[in-house]
Design brief:
The protein is α+β, with helices and mostly antiparallel strands and about 100 residues long. The chain has one domain. Helices cover about 25% and strands about 25% of the residues. The chain has a three-stranded antiparallel sheet with strand order 2-1-5, with no helix packed on it. A two-stranded antiparallel sheet has the order 3-4. A hairpin with a 6-residue loop joins strand 1 and strand 2. The radius of gyration is 20 Å and the shape is elongated. It starts with 8 loop residues before the first strand and ends in a 7-residue tail after the last helix. The model has no long low-confidence stretch (mean pLDDT about 80).
């Protein structure tokens, strides 16, 4: 049986710092749809945090593009902190007594 592979794509912006794709949250997509039906221009500005470099930057609605593939999974801050703690445990401690 032959299965057709569906191309997956999602709406997003490219990070201003590292140029990696950032998927749009559902609330921003719904805001864009309502503004398009009401005839408003794409002058909205919203802030998004990059999942790769962790920097938050403002983006315009005009910067939204269709990106092929699936969005990168989100790394939670608690996972990031745990990783940092593991790295600190490997470091030797100062001999202060």
């Amino acid at each position: 049986m032959i299965q057709e592979l569906k191309e997956q794509h999602y709406s997003g912006v490219l990070c201003s710092c590292c140029r990696q794709p950032i998927p749009l949250p559902a609330i921003i997509i719904s805001m864009e749809l309502t503004s398009a039906t009401q005839g408003e221009q794409g002058n909205r500005v919203f802030s998004l945090r990059c999942r790769v470099c962790e920097k938050e930057m403002p983006y315009r609605a005009s910067e939204v593009v269709e990106i092929e593939g699936t969005p990168r999974s989100r790394v939670t801050r608690s996972h990031h902190r745990a990783k940092l703690l593991q790295q600190q445990e490997r470091l030797s401690r100062a001999a202060n007594g």
